[in-house]
Write a structure and sequence with these properties.
The protein is α/β, with parallel strands linked by helices. It is built from nine helices and 13 strands. Pathway: Cofactor biosynthesis; thiamine diphosphate biosynthesis.
């Protein structure tokens, strides 16, 4: 029995992995913007892999506002929740609330069912940049990263890489620092996130969602970090709309 269980896991895991070593889109970070983008691209038949540092995908959704496990969504983004079959309640004035556990698990389940490979407990530690294009991610197990073990990573090649790493914008930071690329921001560099301003933050999240460099796209709070947008706390419509917007842009670029 024991060896059959081990064998079943090893066989199915490596079949799954083998199929995702070259992908259309590699997403770094399974937060709300990354999960929405992944699902939209996978529904278009694209091969999408997400790499999430933590054991649980979902990013900043789980904790609601200050661990009160409800989030707020504005009316214009409700259709995205509906597409994931996630329920919500009216809070008046065009605002709605949803249970953050239902939102996180609903987005993860939706992405999986659309065919996305979610690699949890895997960190992206570098990018591949060749001939003026970001074309892959360098990955390692999070425990290896955390323990500082001297273990070489592996590489997944991708037609497009999405930085969905939230506030730190880690992939854009890596790409600008290590590959020395100039990105599509007013300064050509990372401009840094501005302080809390909910209304402007929601709008700037969508506005700043873009292609920063050939092969490199940015969504969610990483987009605000790159282009100097405001933070906004536990209102999430902008994150969902950012995911949808970047998916449309990537699809157009991949399909030419
Ligand atoms: O921060 P996060 O939820 O991304 P987001 O889509 O959404 C932001 C909101 O949650 C919230 C907000 C809403 O108003 O402001 O902050 O921008 O999720 C980012 C995910 O990326 C993972 C990280 O663990 C988190 O789950 N991550 C960050 N760096 C890496 C990474 C990395 N180098 N490799 C893998 N995963």
């Amino acid at each position: 029995m024991e060896e059959r269980i081990t064998s079943a896991i090893v066989r199915t895991y490596f079949e799954k992995l083998q199929n995702f070593l070259e992908v259309d889109l590699a997403i770094v970070g399974a937060g709300p913007s990354g999960l929405v983008a992944a699902t939209a691209l996978a529904k278009e038949g694209k091969k999408v892999a997400i790499f999430e540092r933590l054991l649980a995908p979902g990013g900043g959704v789980w904790g609601g506002g200050m661990l009160f496990n409800e989030i707020v969504i504005q009316e214009e983004a409700l259709h995205i929740l509906e597409d994931f079959n996630i329920s919500y309640k009216s809070a008046g004035d065009g605002l709605y609330t949803a249970d953050s556990v239902e939102v996180a698990s609903g987005l993860i389940f939706g992405a999986k069912k659309a065919g996305v490979m979610i690699n949890n407990a895997v960190s992206v530690e570098d990018v591949v940049c060749r001939e003026g294009r970001i074309c892959g991610v360098v990955v390692n197990w999070t425990p290896v990263e955390r323990l500082g073990m001297h273990v070489d990573p592996l590489v997944v090649m991708a037609k497009a890489v999405l930085d969905g790493t939230g506030h730190p914008g880690e992939i854009t930071d890596l790409a600008t620092r290590k590959a020395g690329i100039k990105i599509d921001t007013p300064t050509g560099k990372i401009m840094g996130e501005k302080p809390m301003w909910m209304e402007l933050g929601e709008a700037s999240t969508v506005e700043n969602t873009k292609r920063l460099y050939p092969g490199l796209y940015v969504s969610g709070m990483a987009a605000n970090n790159a282009s100097g947008g405001f933070r906004m706390g536990p209102i999430f419509g902008g994150m969902f709309m950012s995911g949808r917007k970047v998916a449309r842009m990537i699809l157009e670029d991949i399909d030419g």
